[in-house]
Design brief:
- By secondary structure, the protein is mainly alpha-helical.
- It contains nine helices and four strands; from the N terminus they run αααββαααββααα.
- A two-stranded antiparallel sheet has the order 1-2. A two-stranded antiparallel ribbon has the order 3-4.
- A hairpin with a 5-residue loop joins β1 and β2.
- α2 packs antiparallel against α5 and α6 packs across α8.
């Protein structure tokens, strides 16, 4: 617990100034986080089977291209240069034919690299997009995740008895999920009405926050299932007590 708290404080001391400053420093921070997240995806994959070095290099290059080129309009419709997607597909799929050996590089490997690169590039881009739009919205989204996760952890430890999905995440309980959801809806909703849009319809904010809190927890379970498949507790130990970039983001 002590390690977890200290690690969180250090992370906040680093993250808050960058979040407030925004601009190029925030873009650089997002780029670093994205590369570290992709490295975690690759590292956990390589616990079972190594990937060709040039495939790893290509995935790093393309995830940065996605970050630099992805655009979103005011209706949150994503647009991206089709040449980036086409190029990524070519460089990940073509080696499957060239190698002819599943032990070196298979179609499953190609889909893993493609999905990891696209997912991280698009998902992490939204950090910068929301920061550019309105910092209060990004803080609201962070609050949902952080408050839900924190209270799910404490409530689960205090009164958790009924396992949620033990095969995926042995420590998670239904009590933790419910407790995390209650606080993960209440606190961010109060923040949204106070700092983001005081004219927003309360019931709408509650339902949207509830949806994001629940989806966030199932997203956490999905990533836990990836770790269990590869026999890992965490994606990495970059944040002692918390795990890696993928564990937190």
């Amino acid at each position: 617990m002590k390690t977890r708290i200290i690690s969180a404080i250090v992370a906040l001391v680093i993250a808050i100034p960058i979040l407030l400053v925004g601009g190029v420093w925030f873009k650089i921070a997002v780029g670093i986080l994205t590369l570290l997240g992709l490295k975690e995806f690759i590292d956990i994959k390589e616990t079972k089977k190594p990937l060709p070095n040039f495939i790893k290099i290509i995935s790093y290059l393309f995830v940065i291209l996605i970050l630099l080129n992805l655009e979103v309009d005011d209706k949150l419709i994503i647009s991206m240069d089709f040449r980036i997607i086409t190029g990524l597909c070519l460089v990940t799929f073509l080696p499957v034919v060239l190698y002819h050996e599943r032990e070196k590089y298979s179609v499953n490997d190609a889909y893993y690299v493609l999905a990891s690169t696209l997912f991280l590039g698009i998902a992490m881009s939204f950090l910068d997009i929301y920061r550019s739009m309105k910092i209060e919205i990004l803080i609201y989204l962070f609050l949902i995740s952080i408050i839900t996760d924190t209270y799910a952890y404490f409530v689960g430890n205090l009164i958790g008895k009924h396992k949620l999905l033990e095969v995926i995440s042995p420590k998670k309980t239904w009590e933790g999920l419910i407790g995390g959801t209650i606080f993960g809806v209440f606190i961010p909703t109060v923040y949204y009405i106070t700092f983001v849009n005081s004219d927003a319809l309360l019931i709408n904010v509650i339902f949207v926050t509830l949806f994001l809190s629940v989806v966030g927890q199932f997203g956490d379970l999905f990533f836990s299932s990836i770790k269990r498949y590869y026999g890992k507790k965490d994606f990495s130990n970059i944040m002692p007590g918390h795990g890696g970039i993928l564990d937190r983001f």
